[in-house]
Design goal:
Layout (H helix, E strand, L loop, with lengths): L2 H15 L9 E5 L9 E8 L4 E8 L2 E2 L5 E2 L8 E2 L3 E2 L2 E8 L8 E4 L4 E6 L17 H10 L3 H15 L1 E11 L4 E9 L1 E7 L3 E5 L16 E3 L3 H7 L16 H5 L3 H4 L1 H15 L12 E3 L6 H9 L24 E9 L7 E5 L9 E3 L14 H7 L15 H14 L4 H30 L3 H30 L4 E3 L3 E2 L6 E6 L16 E3 L18 E5 L8 E7 H4 L8 E10 L2 E11 L2
Parallel strand pairs: 21-27
Antiparallel strand pairs: 1-2, 1-14, 2-17, 3-8, 4-7, 5-6, 8-9, 9-10, 10-11, 11-12, 12-13, 13-15, 14-16, 17-18, 18-19, 20-22, 22-25, 23-26, 24-25, 26-27
Helix pairs in contact: 2-3, 10-12, 11-12
Length: 599
């Protein structure tokens, strides 16, 4: 990093420390179809959000709406008139206790794919909004209305002109089988859209990356009315020659260099671009927006970028992902790669339902609808509760599709010695699935000559089969590497109480629970539900007792924990998967049980 970059980064470091990691999140990779091994546009995306996240997938059917119907998303956002007919779409929802305006991903029945990246910390925050502006509505309405990536830009432009964007900044990636666009939106009605070229690869973290751009190239670049003029007026852009905007650099004009030099963005950029180009870039000013290349990138390449992080991460003796600054990090709760076919039915996705370096990318076809256990409620209810979810929506449910993978990620993140063997295991699964997928897609293409419904039925069976297989394979291995059991000796946990609650670690044929390392024992929340705490922030036992709790003739370890310490970071009113982290000699040991957290 240059001296200039280091000084700028240092100047804002104190402010950045106050931001939750969930705000420092998300990565997107775009591969043009001429440099994609599949011959199709590839979109890769990591979705990162901290706290208790329930990640579900839904199919929202096409619908007809009554005249005068109004749409309400965030309580403070503008009410928006609904159109008479909306498209059906696949929806990957980020359900959180606070409501997430800027995290969900979509694939609609016209073949339009939508993901996004946070790009906050802008210069010009003095922007006008109408009736609270629009936030979540941008992505959702594009999914409902856009028949192509290009049409999505026009729809977004109309919405932004009417209401204004109510967040600081975001870059939306919007693709169909023919082309991909990125729409970089600044608060208010300031935005720029650029078409990704067929021989380009793009990587962006959580900052505006679009740099020098030819705003006169009307075929590939579209800007909001008055964008250049406003930036000149505010002093954030000064053309070298009056009236000549050939030196316009969007990212420099709207956002400070500190956003790119901040470690949570700088390291991701550095790691991703080193994979793409082979070069280690040390100056944040030198990070490209895109690279033109003749190298062919595979689906596996995109997965590797999304899985990438430092060789050795974490600064404490606890969770592996404590301080991870690569594309894959603490708060990554979902990762996906789309192979965007011109036939929407055949758009393939590869989705990891937890951190991708610890979780397999399970293949599926979004428009063939998700498996039932990927949907935690009806799509209509999920829409209604997106910003109003009750605590019980965050209960631990073993039947939910994501839970097996989240459990595995939690175990692997503490049991570090299992990390490399786990990665080899999931990559072996992925290789097998890639070989099988050729035949399924061939079958579906043939079925399309009969009817779309027939092709969708074939692909839906495939979706269900692959998810079921993935869950079974991961659970079987999880049973091997984390076989030990705990029992929380209470039905409830009071987050306000100084009283203690007991947890029993049961001895078995391979474990003498009485011999665990008491100095290295903690209990509390899972890694997946906590994006910023150290292991040492969890509860420590206040007392130990040796008893045969289950009457099997083996002595068990019974530990007492202060209830409010154990419940730290938990959502009151939810049933929680509550973990014990300890050591048996040099071996790390992870186990969990569930308990209801009182309100």
């Amino acid at each position: 990093m240059t001296t200039r970059s280091s000084l700028v980064a240092a100047a804002v470091s104190a402010a950045l420390l106050t931001l939750p990691l969930s705000a420092l999140a998300c990565s997107t990779v775009i591969v043009g179809k001429n440099i994609s091994e599949t011959g199709k546009i590839l979109i890769g995306h990591n979705e990162d959000n901290g706290g208790r996240i329930m990640n579900a997938q839904y199919w929202v059917p096409p619908a007809k709406h009554k005249a005068g119907e109004m749409i309400t998303y965030e309580p403070t956002a503008a009410k928006i008139p609904q159109v008479r007919e909306t498209l059906g779409f696949y929806w990957s929802q980020t359900l959180s206790t606070k409501g997430q305006s800027f995290s969900d991903g979509f694939v609609n029945e016209a073949g339009v794919v939508i993901v996004s990246n946070n790009c906050s910390m802008i210069f010009d925050k003095d922007q006008k909004l109408t009736n609270g502006g629009i936030g979540y509505g941008i992505r959702r309405l594009l999914a409902e209305r856009a028949h192509s990536a290009r049409e999505a830009i026009d729809i977004a432009a109309d919405l932004l002109a009417k209401y204004g964007y109510n967040a600081e900044g975001r870059t939306y990636t919007i693709a169909d089988g023919h082309e991909a666009w990125q729409l970089a939106i600044h608060k208010g009605n300031m935005w720029i859209a650029r078409k990704i070229q067929d021989n380009e690869i793009v990587y962006i973290p959580n900052n505006f990356m679009l740099g020098k751009v030819d705003v006169m190239d009307k075929d590939n670049v579209i800007t909001s009315p008055g964008l250049i003029e406003r930036l000149i007026k505010t002093g954030h852009y000064k053309p070298a020659k009056a009236g000549d905007y050939s030196d316009f650099n969007f990212r420099e004009a709207v956002q400070p260099l500190a956003k790119r030099t901040a470690e949570y963005n700088f390291r991701r950029n550095q790691i991703a671009w080193e994979y793409i180009t082979g070069d280690t870039i040390k100056d944040a000013d030198q990070f490209p927006y895109s690279v033109v290349t003749d190298r062919q990138f595979t689906i596996k390449d995109v997965q590797n970028i999304l899985r990438a992080h430092e060789e050795e991460i974490g600064d404490d003796d606890g969770w592996y992902h404590h301080l991870s600054y690569g594309p894959c990090r603490t708060a990554t709760h979902e990762s996906v790669v789309f192979d965007v076919d011109v036939e929407p039915v055949l758009i393939a996705s590869y989705r990891a339902l937890a951190r991708p370096c610890e979780t397999p990318f399970v293949p599926s076809y979004p428009l063939a609808k998700p498996s039932e256990n990927q949907s935690f409620m009806s799509a209509a209810t999920a829409t209604k509760e997106h910003f109003h979810a009750q605590p019980t929506r965050f209960d631990y449910h073993p039947e939910y599709a994501s839970m097996t993978f989240v459990n595995n990620a939690n175990v692997i993140d503490y049991q570090r010695d299992d990390f490399k063997s786990n990665l080899k295991f999931i990559q072996k699964l992925e290789k097998k699935w890639a070989e099988e997928k050729v035949g399924i897609e061939s079958q579906a293409r043939a079925a399309l000559s009969v009817s779309e419904d027939k092709a969708l039925a074939i692909l839906h069976r495939y979706n269900v089969a692959k998810l079921t297989e993935a869950q079974g394979a991961i659970q079987a291995r999880l049973d091997q590497i984390a076989p030990h059991k705990i029992v929380i000796l209470s039905d409830t946990l009071d987050p306000k109480s100084n009283a203690t609650i007991k947890i029993a670690l049961l001895s078995d044929e391979d474990l003498d629970a009485t011999q665990i390392n008491r100095e290295k024992t903690y209990a509390g929340i899972s890694r997946a539900s906590n994006d910023k705490a150290l292991m040492s922030d969890l509860a420590k036992p206040t007392a130990y007792a040796i008893e045969d709790i289950n009457g099997d003739g083996k002595k068990d370890m019974v530990m007492s924990f202060v209830q409010k310490d154990l419940a730290k970071f938990m959502v009151p009113g939810a049933v929680y998967d509550t973990y014990l982290y300890t050591r048996d000699g040099r071996d790390r040991l992870t186990a969990f049980d569930t308990v209801k957290v009182l309100k």
